[in-house]
Amino acid sequence: MENDAGSAFELGTDGPKVIVVGVDGSESSWRAAAYAAGLARRQRSLLAMVYVQPMVMASSAGLGVPMAEATSKVAEEIVAQVREAVERMGEAASLRWEFHTFAGDPFTGLAKAADDLRADAVVVGASEQAGHRIIGSLAVRLVKAARWPVTVVP
User: Measured between alpha carbons, how far is 67 from 56 in angstroms, rounded to an integer?
Assistant: First the structure.
């Protein structure tokens, strides 16, 4: 069977080169990160951890600066926890990873990261919010975008 010119299929590549995982400090995002790290290590892929900082509205009664500082603090804490986990894994793990932050809503931030990094896969934790059953979760929105394989970790 011949490969048509418009196909994104690449001959001679095995497995994903870049795996993007969304992290926000929640338990489900840490489970997703652990799963994605295992995949990245076994596949010798780059693990791109992405934290999407919520947009801060300047008109929120003067809460803009404290909120921005809080989300930056969360990003710093996530990076510190990731570094600790990678150090615990030791040299044998040989995990290549990067940490990225984007401002905005989680879907837009993860989609931008996955597109910019040419991700072969996206991993997210299952939503822990009941309202997502009605309006749709981040995972459902990523799957509907149909641009990358998406794995949802419970």
Answer: 7
Give the model confidence (pLDDT) of 71-120 as tens digits. 677 778 877 877 777 676 655 457 888 888 888 888 888 999 999 999 99
Structural contact between residues 111 and 94, judged by C-beta atoms closer than 8 angstroms: no
Q: What is the model's pTM?
A: 0.73
Rg (CA), the chain: 17
Domain of 67 in residue numbering reads as 18-153
Identify the burial level of 109 via C-beta atoms within 10 angstroms of its C-beta, where 0-12 means exposed, 13-18 middle and 19 or more buried.
buried
CATH number assigned to the domain comprising residue 77: 3.40.50.620
The first and second tokens of residue 138, run together, are: 């981040």
Identify the sign of the CA torsion 56, 62, 66, 70: negative
Question: Which 8-state DSSP code applies to residue 100?
Answer: E
Report pLDDT for 64: 47
- Rounded Cα distance between 150 and 139, Å, is 7
